[in-house]
Specification:
Blueprint lengths: L21 E6 L5 H11 L7 E7 L4 E7 L2 H4 L2 H4 L6 E7 L14 E3 L6 E9 L2 H10 L9 H10 L6 H11 L2 E8 L4 E5 L8 E7 L2 E7 L3 H5 L3 E5 L5 E4 L6 E4 L9 E2 L1 H6 L5 E2 L2 E2 H15 L6 E4 L5 H11 L7 E3 L12 H11 E3 L1 H4 L3 E6 L8 H10 L4 E6 L27 H8 L3 E4 L2 H8 L9 E2 L1 H4 L5 H11 L1
Parallel strand pairs: 14-23, 17-20, 20-21, 21-22
Antiparallel strand pairs: 1-4, 1-10, 2-3, 2-4, 5-6, 6-7, 7-8, 8-12, 9-10, 9-11, 12-13, 15-16, 18-19
Helix pairs in contact: 4-5, 5-6, 9-10, 9-15
Length: 484
């Protein structure tokens, strides 16, 4: 039995946007694009597990199925059977600015004066209140509180001559982070925001039957389909995918100099086997772990990771320190990522259910426990207590990112300012709060140098959750007005 979803009234979703979603789009060489989208979404399940949906086009009409729960819970043979066509988009969702209920499940599908369109969105619009007010003033009916529906309505109401022009019209009105997959009867579009904050890549699957084109949040979706990565979409770029020989068209942005890619994708959000911005996520996390040893060395007998996203950093930390690495925590794979559970009580329950400590090799040992990040402290505290219960004599916490102290307004659930365990506490106070014998973090400079290593083209990063320096002026305007 799935746990109940928390009603919107019990969660401060209006004030604190939440998002970590996965999107996929396919132009298939057969009529089973929706089935391929299903397998791609399974590979992106780590990006959200509250709802899932797939829309498809057979060239005449668009069909849609959405549901609450994980991808395999929403889709079986009965749900996939009616979804025929060579075009499909899919979405796996964690709550954005709307509640966790079926009204907000994506993709969104609407009839418009230019024909039906379906949209899947990863990100967050920071000027959504003004956009919503303007649409309502113009008489546009809105059925949800999701900013993804605002995107669809802005696209649908554009008077531009074609869909590329309508997308450019939309981009001129919005501010924020977004990676979009947009489907009409005849074509599939991929769109990335002008700063490239959220990831979106394009690749292809080649078989004897022909070539299928794929858009996805991460390259692991391509791997699941046996495809190859071509590249990430450039900031502000639009690509149009259609069936046939001339199936790939690119419409680059005129402004591509400035970048602000979300560094938290490398720290936690993305799978370690993903290739993002010409960087292997596992390799970057190894660099973070090695640099963490330089920034925050510790004396211990064994290095243990909080699985799964901290494993790469822990292995590198142990190697740099000359201390054995061992598995100290078993993880129940059927329990979702507690960082993206819809409320605090669910996260705490999820930690107890998800992790089980191994008495060997922890009993009688000084344990160095490595995690990728600490946001609320709801995972670290209970786990440290578990380690002591099975006999760890000391627990030294090391974190492969800087202290998280600032909310994210660009599409990642980062809690309220007062919920950050490090916001108003010193490092020593955080250590006492979570019950660790000591605590150390990766430095901000160490994080940046791990991402932009030797021989790599420097990548502009959004590090606002660590530094408080936001890449969009509208955020600074909002912060100034709220403090005055």
């Amino acid at each position: 039995m799935k746990p109940p979803h928390t009603p919107a009234k019990d969660r401060d979703t209006a004030r604190y946007p939440r998002d970590e979603c996965g999107v996929v789009g396919l132009v298939s060489n057969d009529e089973e694009a929706a089935r391929s989208a299903f397998f791609a979404l399974l590979a992106l399940q780590h990006r959200g597990h509250e709802s899932a949906g797939i829309a498809c086009s057979d060239g005449r009409e668009l069909r849609l199925h959405v549901g609450m729960g994980r991808v395999a819970e929403v889709f079986g043979e009965r749900e996939l059977a009616p979804l025929h066509g060579r075009l499909a988009i899919g979405h796996t969702r964690y709550s954005t600015t709307g509640a966790s209920d079926l009204r907000h499940a994506q993709p969104f599908l609407r009839e418009t004066q230019n024909g039906p369109i379906a949209v899947g969105h990863n990100g967050n619009l920071i000027n959504q209140e003004a956009l919503r007010s303007d649409l309502l003033r113009r008489g546009v009916a809105l059925s949800s509180s999701s900013d993804s529906e605002l995107i669809l309505q802005l696209l649908a109401s554009s008077a531009a001559a074609d869909w590329v022009a309508r997308i450019r019209d939309f981009e001129a009105q919005v501010s924020g982070a977004y990676s979009l997959v947009l489907m009409t009867r005849e074509a599939l579009y991929g769109v990335r925001d002008p700063l490239g904050m959220r990831p979106l890549c394009v690749g292809k699957v080649e078989t004897e039957a022909g070539v299928s084109w794929v858009l996805a949040s991460e390259s692991v979706a391509l791997q699941a389909l046996g495809g190859t990565l071509i590249r990430e979409l450039a900031p502000g770029e639009i690509v149009r995918l259609t069936a046939g020989a001339e199936s790939f068209e690119s419409f680059p942005s005129e402004q591509r100099a400035r970048r602000a890619f979300c560094v938290f994708e490398f720290v936690y959000l993305s799978r370690p086997d993903s290739q993002i911005e010409d960087r292997n996520v596992h390799e970057l996390r190894l660099r973070m772990g090695a640099r963490l040893w330089q920034d925050a060395p510790a004396v211990g007998d064994v290095v243990v990771a909080i699985p799964d996203s901290a494993r790469s950093a822990a292995i590198a930390y142990a190697a740099a320190a000359g201390i054995p690495y061992n598995e100290g925590l078993l993880k129940d794979r059927l329990i979702g990522r507690t960082f993206i559970e819809p409320d605090d009580a669910m996260r705490k329950l999820g930690v107890r259910l998800k992790y089980s400590p191994l008495r060997f090799p922890l009993e009688g040992q000084r344990v160095i426990l490595v995690d990728d990040s600490i946001v609320r402290g709801n995972t670290a505290g209970p786990i440290i207590k578990m380690l002591r219960q099975v006999g760890a004599t000391e627990v030294h916490m090391r974190v492969a990112s800087p202290p998280v102290r600032h909310p994210c307004y660009m599409g990642v659930d980062m809690a309220r300012p007062e919920d950050f365990v490090a916001a108003q506490r010193s490092v020593a106070e955080v250590a006492a709060h979570i019950g660790a014998d000591s605590l150390g973090y990766l430095s901000l400079e160490g994080l940046s140098s791990s991402v932009n290593g030797p021989g790599q083209t420097p990548l502009g990063l959004c590090r606002a959750c660590f530094s408080g320096c936001y890449p969009l002026e509208l955020v600074h305007t909002r912060l100034r007005s709220s403090s005055s």
